[in-house]
Amino acid sequence: MAEQTKAYLSNNGEYTTFTFGGRTLTFLTSKSLERYTSIKKWDNGFLVVMAKYSTRATEEEEYIDLIPILENLYMDAESFLTPIKQVEIRYV
Length: 92
Prior knowledge:
13% helix; mainly beta
């Protein structure tokens, strides 16, 4: 898939980052989040992901809704999200 349609999800400690088109959204998540392990579904701003937490032995299904985050940043959610066709986990 072309890079201009792919976004990336990762975390660093309790902060999650979502990167697309030269922009990175950073938001607070659980302090016990170790890492995201897979993307189960991308639906134009709504993510279903699997995550590993230090407080649990197994992965947990989690949900991330980017629309309220974008709206709180006064960003046009539709124009930001529409080009995204795929989301991958990327740790540097």
